[in-house]
Amino acid sequence: MKQKLIIFFALVVFSQCNTKLNNSVASGTLENPDMESKLSDDLSEFKPYLETSNSAIELISKNNYRTVAEKYFLEDENKSKNVDNFAKLDDVVNEQFGKFKSYKKNQWNFSKQNYEGNDYIQSIKIVHFRKATSFVTLTFKDGDPSKILGLYFNNPPPPKKYVKIDESYTYEGIKK
After folding, report:
1. 8 A C-beta contact, residue 77 and residue 83
2. DSSP 8-state symbol, 6
3. Burial classification of residue 32, based on how many CB atoms lie within 10 Å of its CB (0-12 exposed, 13-18 middle, 19 or more buried)
4. pLDDT single digits (tens) 14-71
5. Which among 3, 26, 72, 140 is least surrounded, fewest beta carbons within 10 Å?
6. Rounded-to-10 torsion of CA 134, 1, 110, 54
7. Cα separation of 129 and 4, whole Å?
8. Residue 149 CA to chain centroid, in angstroms?
């Protein structure tokens, strides 16, 4: 879990509003990663990934975890087992995060990844539940926005706190 949080935090740190940095783009800013923004023409390659991400989140909002897995997971010999396991996630998410509240359709964060010679697109959607907010990471094979290879619910990193002390600033208690 900590590794996922570190990876997400690194993505957020290296992304700014509609700016490409290290193959990452985001609708929000460091101060407000939950901002909405339309995808610009130069980011149109991410539109189908955003549509699939939003469709999956819509199904999750209705507790249709089984439908997410049936519709978006890859067809393979383990699909039936994966669908059954993912359908059970409903109870886990409700226990940890509470009932679904909201998300923003035009909030997005995309990064391009290469792992063992394969190219992937990661889509991060910020989803608000009653108990907590989650950064939901959806992973796709680059070029195939119709199938989700991985879907993870992550706790967000702690909020940044800047404190002014004697004209110098600290970040969560560490003097800069």
Report:
1. no
2. H
3. exposed
4. 333 333 435 789 998 888 889 999 999 999 999 999 999 999 999 999 999 999 999 9
5. 3
6. -40
7. 19
8. 13
Asked whether 52 and 58 are in contact (CB, 8 A), the reply is no
What is the set of domains in the chain, with CATH numbers? Answer: 2-175 (3.10.450.590)
Tokens of 56: 């999956």
The tens digit of pLDDT for each residue in 83-114 reads: 998 888 888 898 889 999 999 999 999 999 99
User: Quick one: tokens of 86?
Assistant: 């993912």
Residue with tokens 């907590």: 132
Contact in structure between 105 and 54 (CB atoms under 8 Å): yes
Instruction: Count the helix, strand and coil residues of the chain and give each as a percent rounded to the nearest 5.
Output: 35, 30, 35
User: Residue 35 in contact with residue 110, Cβ under 8 Å?
Assistant: no
Contact 155, 127 (CB under 8 A): no
Instruction: Kindly report whether the global pTM for this prediction surpasses the value 0.70.
Output: yes
Question: Do residues 138 and 125 make contact, with C-beta atoms less than 8 angstroms apart?
Answer: yes
